[in-house]
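Structure ticket #2291
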Amino acid sequence: MDPCEVVVAVDLGGTRMKCGLVAADGAVLHRETRPTPRAASDERGGGRVVLEALLETVVELSQKATADGHRVRAIGVVVPGVIDAEHGTVGAENLEWVATPVLAELKAAISDDVPIVLAHDVRAGGYAELRQGALAGTTNSMFLPLGTGIAAAMIVDGSLVSGDGYAGELGHSKFIYGDAAELCACGQWGCLETVASAAALARRYAARTGRTVDGAREVMELLAAGDPDAAQVWQDALAALIDALVLYTTLVAPTRIAIGGGLVGAGETLLQPLREGVHARITFQREPEIVAAVLGEEAGMLGAAQMAWDRVAAEEEEHSA
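Resolution: structure written out below.
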């Protein structure tokens, strides 16, 4: 492999880190997946074990790039949770991070003066879908991954909306009311995430039947086999998702919505009811095209790389001005 300039890109998930060394033309010169340690195993609290694993990964990938003869131009790291863009801190319940100074820790771990970009994993995935995936060519669109949790990457008038790190938490909007509302991890009752995430499907099926299942995958298998309880859990999820898509369409008028995450593996079993439900509900609104995202599990990592290369370009432009 010929030496070239690369960025280090890491997408930190609750169970795995997707990593890569990515050239300026988007070519992934090296990719690997590492386990994310469980925050609960850290006796020191605060998810320190997760942070240390992230720092170790970034350092080792930088060292590998150098050993392979590449020049590291920037580092892009994307994480779940709420990112305070001004201070570079992250709050993520599943990682046991509370105002954790992730950006400062990354800068301290990297001795070289290399630019570091810290961003939200879903916004990074949406950015990758916008640049080279299912949202290419759009100026008003949304990337909505349905996985363990739910968040949205919003493209409005051609720009990715970050809200200073707080925007896009569609999964924590209230769509379930009354006795059907469940307590969400965020502390609110009736969030979209409590009924329509992959984790919710498995949990709600188990609560309904008393039978533990192997995640959303098994619920979908039971649905295909005609299980009535799986069908009810699925219909509840679809109804909440349609409510969310209609609300978003009314407020922001996307021309295309790309559904990603683990649940998009259901294909038309998911997409067609969403299309039909949104079509039946809208009146004056512009109807969005609802499609499957195309970049899969690498979307966040690719978005992290693109954001890092954007930082390189911006700094080069600033220096040449």
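Closing remark: The longest strand covers residues 71-79.
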